[in-house]
Write a structure and sequence with these properties.
The complex is a heterodimer of chains A (about 475) and B (about 450).
Chain A lengths: L8 E4 L4 H7 L3 E6 L3 E5 L5 H28 L9 H34 L29 H10 L4 H6 L3 H12 L12 H11 L33 H4 L14 H16 L10 H11 L31 H24 L14 H22 L29 H25 L4 H24 L3
Antiparallel strand pairs in A: 1-3, 2-3
Helix pairs in contact in A: 2-3, 2-7, 3-9, 3-10, 4-6, 4-10, 7-9, 11-12, 11-13, 13-14
Chain B lengths: L3 E7 L2 E5 L10 E4 L8 E4 L2 E4 L6 E5 L19 E8 L5 E3 L2 H6 L8 E8 L1 H6 L6 E8 L5 E5 L10 E9 L9 E5 L5 E3 L13 E2 L22 H6 L9 E3 L5 E3 L3 E2 L2 E11 L2 E12 L13 H10 L9 H19 L3 H4 L10 H9 L14 H13 L5 H7 L12 H4 L18 H16 L8
Parallel strand pairs in B: 2-20, 14-15
Antiparallel strand pairs in B: 1-7, 3-4, 5-6, 7-8, 7-13, 9-10, 9-19, 11-12, 12-13, 14-18, 16-17, 19-20
Helix pairs in contact in B: 5-8, 5-11, 9-11
The chains are: A mainly alpha (about 475), B alpha+beta (about 450).
Amino acid sequence: MPSRLTRHLVWTSPQLATTYSEAAHLELLAVAPAVEALHLDLALPPREKAIYLLHIGAQVEHALMAQYFYAASSLGGPHLKDPNQQRNAKQWRDVIVKIAREEMGHLATVENLLTLVGGPLMFEREDYPIPKDLYPFDFELEPLTKKSLGKYVLAEMPAESVVASLGLTSEIDAIRSYVGGDAQKESLSVHRVGLIYEAIQSLFQGATITQEPPEKPHVFVESQDISSDSKRFQARPEQWGLGYSEMLIETAVDRASAKSAIQAIATQGEGSTIADLPSSHFGRFLEIYRRFPDEGDWRPARQVARNPTTNREAPEDRRITNSESLLWAKLFNIRYRMLLMFLKHSFCIEAPNGTSETTPRGLLISWSFGEMYNLRSISDILMSLPMRDSEKEPLAGPPFEMPYTLSLSTREPGRWRQHRDLISASQHYVNQLRKRKSGRESYLLGMEQANGEALTQISALLGGIPS
Amino acid sequence: MTTLAELRILPPFAIARLGSSAEPMDNYEMNLTTPIGWRQLADATTFVVDPQSCEIHAKKRPFVVKFRDENGKIRPVAPFLEVWARLDRSDELVPLDLNLLLKLGKEPRALKWSVVTGNIKAFRRTGDPADKVIASTGIFSDHQVKPLLGQCKNFFEQKSIPLGSVQYIKPNEEFPEVRLRFTPAAGRVYGPPLESGKPDGNLAGEVYDPTKGHWKGYKDAADPKTDDLLKMRRATNPGNVYAGDDYDDSHRQSWGYLDDECDGIVEVELEVGGSRLSAFARIAAGPPTFAPDSMPMRTVHDEIEQAMLGPNFDSDVTEKEMDEVREIVRRALETVRLMNTGQMNKPSKQRGVGMARMDFLDVNRALEPIVDPAVADSLAIRSRHERLLIALDSGSLAWFARVLREHDQVGDLSTDGRRRMPALMRGADARYLALTRRQVSKIKAAAEFILRTPAGENEK
């Protein structure tokens, strides 16, 4: 069942692309020769179409980021005694954390493009597991195994023709078989996210006007809808890049920069030539896959839960019920929401004009980095605690549950009050955990102090903002 | 029969801090009580020297740590130096005290002290030996305060600069150890008389004779086209860091000022069993601390550790090293809390504080802020450091280790190079500050260690 977001996308074979499109009143968006074609079953003007497709892109990048982060965090652990195994687990963890970080850069780039066309931002995504209407498998939070790694290889894979030109067809077929089993091979035809980005790219093409008035107006996003001065609101690598040169955060001010931003994301994901392969996500996952031990051999990851949740209605095997783990998981969810709210809010405040002005944008950026550190700290803690009271394993993990809302208040004071309230909510769980005296005291005390300082800063800011 | 193999003065290097109060500073401790808060200062046991008897007559614990006396004058930090001894056939150092002296058949006055200190800052620039300010006590064994009167050939007759004093504390039954105390000077400025004949309000004394020496009017050689190359070599980097008038774009003309800071050698000698044993220690006097509850990122301790143990940390990381690394990151937080980062990030052609402008003034780099002004705000930078410190055990250290400036990157003025950590700060060689190579090596080793340690098990 397609989700609310993706139900307007229709995938067909490329041979049927044109005829099917016309017969079913669909709009053909993009075609991958010899693979598939992407259609839209909704009439939308170009700008809105771009926003719709960018929203899908944002959700996918967001989901990939959380999924890769979870997988990377599961690697290593006290069960690994052999130094070679420890070294490999660490190396793979580093590589996958980097990829997760790069997905974050992709998400920021997509938000920048939304800002460029004045569209609403998209930090939402569906909860795990995410149904497979865009990928050949469910998105899941799970420990890294050879099978899950195979899924990541397929998710980041470039077009079949590129795979063939790289001489990887038989290897990819073998991965498909391994991941899905022979019986499911047919259902494992990959819908390439790359095609969505190609469709977005085409919407930013410049039209060569051959007649006046143009026969079909609004084929491309109109120039008047592209706001070059929105750059002051966009995420910039010098603010967000943390000194990681490979972390790609592209800003866009016109058609050319918008197109090249999309191209850069696509290339870093899939890679399309031999030269790009080692640095692409596809190439890096493939390299790990080749070296990853087979099932039954040594286990690089801890025994952590699959799709852990705090939801009481969820199936028992997904529910975190150990009381301490549950408190940490709830704290994680609140801090995750805080991160998304800080990120979203930072796009609402323009960067200082010149060097003399200061704005709270820098504070939101610092807080966002702080929450990234916090999420990592709490993930590590959760992955050392049991899911349930009765068994030592599986271990819990960060649930990455989406909050009931990520909407920001319409006015600035309300937004800061939202942050204030979330900080207070997180302090509730900090207090509960501190009462238990189960360790991690200095971390919790540090968070408590940082909460206190943030509340003081918000109070000062609220004093200076007209309500 | 007890025989001595060796004498030592401990500590071998003591740093005093200037102050004009007659009452020396009490001891205090810096305690960490909260994860990201300030260090708490706590009173600690302090020796009090009786000026009449020249003995330590009491230990006291003040209830409040005060850096100024009742008149608002800064209390000097006046360190004690202790004599320790190694007995024959022993590797252990023991305090040389009345009891040990008795066993050796010696009185306290058998110890012969001598102290020489100097302030050779003017000589460092002019190259004229007659500009050296030197104080020497000669040999002494009594317990009276010995003033360190800085003499200089280029001073007026009978003029000197007080560089502090030393006192051989008289051991007694309660405090039998052999100690010498160094009390630094008041922190005053001296110089030549003004040509106008009017008194110079900056000066505590008109001592320098400009008809004898050339410190007044001296200019650092700063222009390779016109200045003498030998003099260029003698110039410091950064240059022109003395009080004076800007002569032209690259030269500053000295007013001939001298301060009362100094450093020097304390020696002690004891003739015992027909042999003469001696030991020495270094002393120095520097300015008072105005942020006593904070520590700089790179300290003298870090320098000495590197000198002793080498630039690479290649042992196993233990909890001790983890604590040391946490301490370094905390010091980074303490440092940025005292910085107006927004201001220091601003590029400008005017002289002033901040590397953004110094990169232009020193090497003519294009005028640009160092980091994006949106994230340079003091509050934002402080918040970031606090959160870095809290999450140190779960990955933020890996990032920190990655963005540290290496010792050979201090002159890297590329955009990325300028943004390395420590950011916005100038080192002693005028370019960007880097941590010691050993500090960097230790932080990197700790970051690796954290990644190897099982999740959630780094909590101290």
